[in-house]
Design a protein that fits this description.
Blueprint lengths: L1 H21 L11 E5 L13 H10 L4 E4 L5 E2 L36 E2 H19 L4 E4 L1 E4 L5 E6 L12 H10 L21 H15 L4 E5 L10 H10 L6 E5 L18 H6 L5 E2 L2 E2 H4 L4 H6 L6 E4 L15 E6 L6 H10 L2 E5 L5 E6 L2 E2 L3 E4 L3 E9 L19 E8 L20 E7 L13 E2 L1 E4 L2 E9 L4 E8 L25 H6 L2 E4 L2 E5 L16
Parallel strand pairs: 1-2, 2-5, 9-12, 17-26, 20-21
Antiparallel strand pairs: 1-13, 3-4, 6-7, 7-8, 10-11, 13-14, 14-25, 15-16, 15-18, 18-23, 19-20, 19-24, 22-23, 24-25, 24-26
C-alpha cells in the first residue's frame, strides 16, 4: 500500500510540475511551411533513463513542432510515466500492481510487459495527456521496431490516434504484436483477433511492410534507424522494402542519434577497421552523417539514380545524459500543407519536401527547379534548367551550451547532380550494387566566389539580400533524366580532420567526440529534385505503385 501511495504522489508532483511549465511556454513561429521534428526518442518505457514526461518537456523546450515517442518493441520492465532519474525512482509493473497480459515471460523477466500492451493501455494515454499540455504541438505515438532479419526502424500508424470519439493506437499495437522480432507473445492478441506473422527473418519483415501497404498505406511510415551502424541493412533490403511498400517505406535516417557520444553516433569501430568500415555495410559517421548518405555516389545516390523516391531524416535517438535532447542538435524539417495535423505531416513525409540539419546551421530552405520543389519532378524539353536556392542562416545563438561557438555561419553549399537510369530488377546482378559513379558536385556557392577545390571546381559567390538569407541561381545542363540535391556546412575546405579538399566530410574517428566537437562540425542535407528530360522516349524510372510520382 505504501508503494502505491508513493507512486500516486510522484505522479501528482510530476503533473503539477508539467502544469507549471505551460504558462511559460512561448509559441515558436514556423518559418514558411516547414515544421521541425524528431522521429526517435526513448524513455523509461524502454531503456531510457528519464520519464516520458521529462522527454516530452525537452522536445518542447528545444523548439520542435512535432515529435514521436518511439520506445522499443518487445518487452520491458518499467512504467514510463512514473519511472525516471527526473523523478528519482523506478516503478516496475509489479510494483505498480499492474498485471502483464499475454504469454508469461521467462523466469528472469517475470513481470515484464509486452510492448503491445504498454502501447495500447499506458504509453498512448501519456501521449494524450501531453497533447493536452502542449496543444500547439503534434505528438505521435510510435515505437522502434525490431525488424526481423535486420535491426531497428521507427514506425508510427496514425490511424485512430486522432479520432475525436475514440482515440487509440490499436493498429500500432497490433503491428507490434504481429511483427516485432522480440515480441514472442502468442496469446495476448487473440482476444482482439490479431494473428502473428506467418514468416521469419527477412520474409517476415517484407510481410510486415506489405501488411502496412495493404492496410494503412497513407497513414504510416517506416524509417530504418541508424541503417549503416551495425550491418543490419544492405541496399537490396531498401530496394525490397520500397518495392513492396512504396507508400510506407520511403527513406532512412541519414544522421543517426547519439551525436555527443564519445564515438559519434555511438558506432562501434573496434571490430571494423577503417577499410572495412568504408567498404562494408556499416561505417563511421562523416560529419555526423552515416556513410550511406554522406558518401557521394554511395548507397543513397545509388537509390536515387534508379529514380526511387527515397528520403532522408535525422533524429536524436535520445536515451540519457550521454545524448542530445530531441531538437537540441538535430532536426528534420518537413513541408506541410497544414500545421498541427497528423495526416498533413505523414503526407509531407512521403512528399520528400524536406531537409535535415545539425546545430541550427540553417532553419529554412527554398530549393526549386522551375515549379518543382524537393521530392518532385520538373519536366522539360530544353537542355538547360535554372536552379534556384535560398537558405536562411539565422544570426542568433543555437542550443550550444558546451562551448562559445554558439552562432555558426554557413561556409559553403554544394549542388550535387546525378543521372537517373531506371529501376533495377530484383533478378539483375546490379540489384546489390550500392554505388554509382556519375554523381558529383557540379557547383559550389560561398560568400566570396573564386575558390578552387581539389578537383578544380571554382566556387560561385552567392548574393546576400539581407535578413539572414543567402540566394543562389545556377543554370544546369541536362543530359537525360537527372536529380539534384544540396549539402552545406560551416566548415571551410581542407579543415584538418573534418573536411577534404573536394568538400567531402571526413570520418569522425580522428579524435574522441564530445558535445562541443559535434557543435563545431555542422551540416545540412536536402532531399533531391528530379528532372525528366522529354526527349520523346517513354519514362522508365517511375515505380508504378507510388501515386505521388
Amino acid at each position: 500500500m505504501k508503494q502505491k501511495t508513493t507512486l500516486l504522489l510522484l505522479i501528482v508532483l510530476s503533473i503539477t510540475r508539467l502544469n507549471s511549465c505551460i504558462s511559460s511556454e512561448t509559441d515558436r513561429p514556423v518559418k514558411g511551411l516547414y515544421i521541425s521534428g524528431d522521429f526517435h526518442q526513448h524513455t523509461t518505457y524502454s531503456g531510457g533513463n528519464y520519464s516520458i514526461g521529462h522527454v516530452m518537456e525537452a522536445s518542447n523546450k528545444y523548439g520542435l513542432d512535432w515529435w514521436a515517442n518511439s520506445d522499443h518493441g518487445g518487452t520491458r520492465e518499467n512504467w514510463g510515466r512514473a519511472s525516471g532519474d527526473d523523478l528519482g525512482t523506478r516503478v516496475t509493473w509489479t510494483c505498480a500492481g499492474i498485471k502483464p497480459l499475454g504469454s508469461p515471460q521467462e523466469a528472469e523477466n517475470a513481470g515484464f510487459m509486452w510492448r503491445w500492451q504498454s502501447l495500447k493501455y499506458y504509453s498512448f494515454q501519456d501521449i494524450l495527456l501531453w497533447r493536452r499540455l502542449f496543444p500547439d504541438k503534434l505528438l505521435l505515438q510510435a515505437f522502434e521496431w525490431n525488424v526481423p532479419g535486420h535491426e531497428h526502424a521507427n514506425i508510427s500508424i496514425i490511424a485512430n490516434q486522432f479520432n475525436d470519439t475514440n482515440e487509440n493506437c490499436d493498429p500500432l499495437a497490433q503491428f507490434e504484436y504481429m511483427f516485432d522480432d522480440e515480441d514472442n507473445d502468442t496469446t495476448g492478441g487473440l482476444a482482439f483477433g490479431w494473428k502473428k506473422g506467418n514468416f521469419t527473418g527477412k520474409e517476415k519483415a517484407l510481410e510486415a511492410a506489405k501488411w502496412l501497404q495493404a492496410n494503412y498505406p497513407l497513414q504510416t511510415y517506416v524509417v530504418p534507424s541508424h541503417p549503416d551502424k551495425s550491418g543490419g541493412y544492405t541496399i537490396s533490403d531498401f530496394r525490397d522494402f520500397n518495392n513492396a511498400a512504396p507508400d510506407v517505406c520511403f527513406g532512412f535516417d541519414a544522421m543517426p542519434g547519439h551525436q555527443k557520444n564519445a564515438t559519434r553516433g555511438s558506432y562501434d569501430l573496434e571490430d571494423t577497421p577503417y577499410g572495412v568500415v568504408m567498404d562494408g555495410n556499416k561505417g563511421a559517421t562523416f560529419g555526423g552523417a552515416g556513410v550511406f548518405a554522406s558518401k557521394i555516389g554511395g548507397v543513397w545516390d545509388a537509390l536515387l539514380s534508379e529514380g526511387r523516391r527515397w528520403w532522408i531524416s535525422a533524429s536524436s535517438d535520445y536515451h540519457d545524459d550521454d545524448d542530445f535532447y530531441p531538437g537540441e542538435y538535430q532536426k528534420t524539417y518537413i513541408r506541410v500543407t497544414k500545421r498541427n495535423d497528423a495526416q498533413a505531416l505523414i503526407d509531407g513525409m512521403r512528399s520528400g519536401d524536406r531537409f535535415i540539419v545539425t546545430g541550427d546551421l540553417i532553419t529554412d530552405l527554398n530549393f526549386k527547379i522551375g515549379t518543382a520543389v524537393m521530392g518532385k519532378t520538373f519536366k522539360t524539353n530544353t537542355k538547360y534548367v535554372t536552379i534556384e536556392i535560398e537558405v536562411f542562416d539565422p544570426d542568433n545563438t543555437n542550443n550550444n551550451t558546451y562551448s562559445e561557438y554558439t552562432n555558426p555561419v554557413i561556409n559553403h553549399i554544394d549542388l550535387i547532380a546525378g543521372q537517373v537510369t531506371g529501376l533495377i530488377s530484383p533478378s539483375s546482378t546490379d540489384y546489390t550494387r550500392d554505388n554509382i559513379s556519375n554523381t558529383r558536385v557540379i557547383a559550389r556557392f560561398d560568400a566570396t566566389g573564386g575558390l578552387k577545390d581539389l578537383n578544380g571546381l571554382e566556387s560561385i559567390k552567392w548574393t546576400d539580400p539581407g535578413n539572414d538569407w543567402k540566394k543562389m541561381t545556377y543554370r544546369a545542363e541536362i543530359s537525360g533524366n537527372m536529380y539534384f540535391r544540396l549539402r552545406g556546412t560551416n566548415l571551410a575546405l581542407n579543415t584538418p580532420e573534418e573536411i577534404d579538399g573536394a568538400g567531402n566530410p571526413l570520418p569522425d574517428i580522428a579524435e574522441e567526440n564530445s558535445a562541443a566537437k559535434a557543435f563545431s562540425d555542422l551540416w545540412f542535407y536536402s532531399d533531391p529534385i528530379f528532372v525528366e528530360y522529354l526527349s520523346g522516349k517513354e519514362d522508365s524510372f517511375r515505380p508504378e505503385k507510388n501515386p505521388d510520382f
